[in-house]
Specification:
Layout (H helix, E strand, L loop, with lengths): L1 E2 L3 H8 L6 H11 L29 E2 L5 E13 L39 H13 L7 E2 L2 E4 L9 E4 L6 E8 L5 E12 L3 E5 L2 E5 L6 E7 L6 H18 L11 E11 L7 E6 L2 H20 L7 E6 L4 E7 L9 E2 L6 E2 L2 H8 L6 H12 L3 H9 L1 H21 L7 H25 L10 H12 L5 H14 L3 H8 L7 H14 L1 H8 L4 H13 L6 H15 L1
Parallel strand pairs: 13-14
Antiparallel strand pairs: 1-17, 2-3, 3-11, 3-12, 4-17, 5-6, 5-16, 7-8, 8-11, 9-10, 12-13, 14-15
Length: 558
Amino acid sequence: MNPVRSSKKILRNTRKKDETPLESSRRKSRRAKPVFAGLKNDFLTGRADFVSDKLHQIAPKETSNGVKYQPTVGLEVHVELKTASKMFCSCSNDPDEKRPNVNVCPVCMGHPGTLPVINAEALRKTIKTGLALNCEIPEITKFDRKNYFYPDLPKGYQISQYDQPLCVGGSLLLGNLVSKKIRIRRVHLEEDTGRLLHEKGHSLVDFNRAGFPLMELVTEPDLDSAKEARAFAEELQLILRYLGVSDANMEKGQMRVEANVSLAREGKLGTKVEIKNLNSFRAVEKATDYEISRQSKVLTSGKKVIQETKGWQAQKEVTVSQREKEEAHDYRYFPEPDLPPLRFTSEKIDEIRAELPELPQQRRARFQAEYGLTFKEVALFAQNKALGDYYEKAASELRNWAKEIDAQKEVSQEEFFKLAKLCSNYIITDLQGLLKGASVDADFRITPENFAEFVILIYRGQISSKTAKLVLEEMFFTGADPTHIIEEKGLAQITDAAEVEKIVKEVILQNPKGVEDFRKGKEASFQFLVGKVMSASKGRASPEAVHRVLRATLTKLK
C-alpha cells in the first residue's frame, strides 16, 4: 500500500466535471464488471438477478382498493472487526471490557493535535470480506470526515468513507429460501462511536467503543420480504465467522442491522423508511414485516409514507419514529485531511484472496457432492462449522476403512454414501441430543476416529440400533472406544443362527397363543413374537436373523 500524495489529484482523475461525490460513486458502481458472467438479464428492472431458471417473485401486497404494492427492502449492516487495537490508535479493541472509559487515549477522544494511524489489519479484513462477497477492490481508496454532533461522538466527526470505499459491486447468494443473488453496493471501513448508558434522570457515555474498527456493508434494494432480510443477515453472519473477521454476535452489538423499507406499485420505488439498530435475526424479520404492513395501511388510506428514521420496540413489536431522515449532504463529507489516500496493488489483493477459506455456500455444495447428504443435513453442517468439521473427520475415517476392507477394488460411491449417511444421522440426531442435554462446560470426549468406529460397528451389524444408543451414551460420558464398551458390557449383537434359534424356541414355548394365531394366518402375531424374541435377547439379537429363524421355525410347526 503506497500513499498517494495529493487527494485533489485523485479526485480530478476519478470524478467528472461538476459531478458530486455521490454521483461519481454511482457511476463507478454502474461501470463495475458483472460478478457472474454468462447470466442473461443480469439485473431485472434494476432488481436482483437469479441463479435458478425460474424467477422467484414475492406476491405484491393487494390493498382493499385493489392496488398492488411491491415491498422493497435494502439492508445496512455494521460489523465490529476482530482486531487487537482500535481503528486509528493503539487502544485495545476489547468488546468485553465492562469498566467504562479505560480503553481510551487522546487520539480516539479527539484531543487537539493528535493524528490518526490506520489499522492495517482492519483494512485487510475488510478487503477479505469484500472478496468473499464477490466485490471489486478499487485501486484507490480514501477516508472522509462525516460531520455531525452527538454525545457519543467525542471528535464531533466520524472518520468514514464516502465516494471511494474499499469494496464495491458485490453479491451474496441466498440458498436457503431461493437461489437468489442479492447485490451489494459497497463495503467500507469507519470508526465506531461510544456507547450511551441511560439511567434515571441522566445519561452516561462510555468511550471504550469509540474508535473500534467498524465495517459497513450496504445492499441494493433487492430483498422482497422480511424472510429474505433475515436470511441475508444469517448468511452474512456465517460468512463473517468463516472468514474470522468478526465474531458477529448480534446480542453483543458486534453485528447491527438497519433495514430500509419501502412500498410502491410494481416497477417503482416508494418512500424509504429506515429502521435502526436491529440486534437479532428475529428483530430483523419482525421489524421489516411490521413496517411493510404499516406502510400498506398508510397507502391504502390514501395518505403518503413519510421518509423517516424509526426504532424497533421489541416488547410491543412496533416501529416508532425517531427523526426525519437526513440526506447525505447533511453530514458535510470531505476528504480526511490527516490520512492520505491508499493504493492497493493487484499483487496485494491476490495475496489476500489466497487466504480465503471455504465459505458456507461452497461447503454445502461440496458436502452434497462428496457425501450424498440432503440439503437439510448440509445446511446444518454449514451453520454449525465445528459440527461440520467433526463430521468430515469422521467421514474421512470411514472412507479409509472402506478402502482397507477391499484393497483390490474401488469402493462404490453408493456404498460410501450409505456409510456417510449413517454417520450423519447419528451425529445430527443422537449425538446432538446428548450435547444439548449436557452441561455447558462438559468436555466432549468422543474422537472422530472412535465415532467412525462406532458407525462401522452398526454398518456391519455388530450392534443393533437399540444397543447403539447405549454404546454412544457410554462413549459420550467416558470417552472409551466402542469396541471396548461392547466387550466389557456384553453388548455384541447375536448373529449366530444356533444361538438365535435357541432363544426363538424358548419364546415359542412361552407364547402358545401367539404361535396358534400365526398358524391361523394372523400375520400380526409374527411381529408380536419378534418383539418377544428381541426382548428375551435384551435387544442384542440381529433383527434379520430373528426374522429369518423365527419364520423358518414357525413354518415347520404348521
